[in-house]
Amino acid sequence: MYDVIIIGAGPIGLACGIEAVKNNLKYLIIDKGCLVNSIYNYPTNMVFFSTSDRLEIGNVPFISHGVKPTRTEALEYYRRVKSSWNLNVHTYEKVNSVVGEFGNFTVITAKREYKTANVIAAIGFYDNPNYLNIPGEQLPKVKHYYDDAHPYAYQKVAVIGGGNSGVDVALETYRKGSEVTMIIKKDKLDDGVKYWVRPDIENRIKEGAIKAYFNSTVKEILEKEIVIDTPKGQITIENDFVFAMTGYHPDFSFLEKIGIEFQSVENLTPAYNPETFETNKKGLFLAGVVCGGMDTGKWFIENSRYHAENIIREIKNSYIK
Fold first, then answer.
1. What range defines the domain where residue 164 resides?
2. Rounded distance, CA 80 to CA 84, Å?
3. Which residue, among 216, 206, 144, 154, has the nearest Cα to 180 in the 3D structure?
4. Residues 279, 281, 287, CA angle at the centre, nearest 5°?
5. Domain end among 244, 273, 294
C-alpha cells in the first residue's frame, strides 16, 4: 500500500517524488515511456527558453555549458536528479486506469495493479498533437513531431505554425538546404517566439529566403502538393514534407476516465483547488502543465515546481495521521 502514486516521470513528477521522500511517504512514480519522456522526444538540437537554474529540482545543481541548456544537458541533469534522490521510478509501464476512492485507490497499469491512498497525475501534454483535421493529414509525409533537419535536406518543406516550434523547424531545415514555406493563421509570428531567434526568422522571411503566408491555412495535403487558403485566394504549391507544429494537449480522455471534472468546457481546464491542486475527487491531484487544459503555455517546469510541495503538504495534512 503506497501513500501516493505519481503518474508521469517528467520533471514535475520527479519533483513530487522528491517531496514524498522528504516527507517519508511511501511512493511510486510510473511512466509509460522513459525518464522525462517528453524532453527525450524534443528536437535533437533544441535549446531551452529558460536558464538552467530555473529548471532545477530537488536542490540538485544544473550546470550547462551555455546560458540556455540543451536537450542533451537536460536529459543528463534529470538522470542525475533521479540518481541523487534514488527515486522509485517504473518506466515503460502505461497506466490504463485509476479506480477507487481516497485512501483506497487502485492504479491499473499494463503490467500490474497497485494500491495507494493518493494519486498525482503529472501527465504533461506532449504525447497528444493538435490535429488539423484536413484531407491528407494521414499521409506519411505529414509530421507532428520534429527531430532533426538532415533527412529533409534539399526537400520542399511546409511548416504550419508561427510559434517557437514552427520557427525552429523552419530555420533548421532552411539551413540544411530545404526550400521552406511557412503557413501561419495569424497576421504575424507568435508573440512568444524566443527573442534571440525572432530577428533571424524575420530577416529570412523579409529577404524571401523563407516564404511565409500569413492569415493563411492549409486546406488539403496531397502526395506532392499542398493547398493553401490565403488572403489573395487559394493556391497550390509543390511539397515533399509537412511539419504541422500546431501544438499539443493533455490526455483529456484519461482525465475524464479517472473521474476528473472540467471547470471550463471550452478550454478543457480540469477542476482543481489552486492551492492544493486536489481535483473534484478527494485524494486525486494534478501537477504541472496538465492543470492548464488546452492552455499549455500557462504552466512550465519553472513556474510549476512548487505544485509538488503544495500537493505533498496537503497529502500529509489530510491523510497521514
1. 142-244
2. 6
3. 154
4. 30
5. 244
How many whole angstroms separate alpha carbon 181 and alpha carbon 179? Answer: 7
**CA-wise closest residue to 162 among 146, 195, 184:** 184
> How do the residues of the chain divide into helix, strand and coil, expressed in percent and rounded to 5?
25, 25, 45
118 falls within a domain: yes
Query: Which pLDDT does position 168 carry in this prediction?
Result: 94
pLDDT tens column, 130-146: 999 999 999 999 999 99
Q: What single-letter DSSP state applies at residue 158?
A: E
On whether the pTM is more than 0.85, the answer is yes
Contact criterion met (CB below 8 Å) for 123 and 7:
yes
**In the prediction, which pLDDT does 192 show?**
86
d(CA 191, CA 251): 26
DSSP 8-state assignment for residue 31: -
pLDDT digits (tens, 9 = 90+) for 194-222: 888 999 999 999 999 999 999 999 999 99
Q: What is the mean pLDDT of the chain?
A: 95
| Half-sphere exposure of residue 124: CA atoms within 13 angstroms, side-chain side | 23
Calculate mean pLDDT across residues 222-241: 98
Instruction: Specify the pLDDT at position 174.
Output: 98
Query: Are residues 297 and 179 located together in one domain of the fold?
Result: no
Angle at 291 between CA 260 and CA 62, to 5 degrees: 135
Kindly tell me the sign of the dihedral angle through the C-alpha atoms of 221, 226, 230, 232: negative
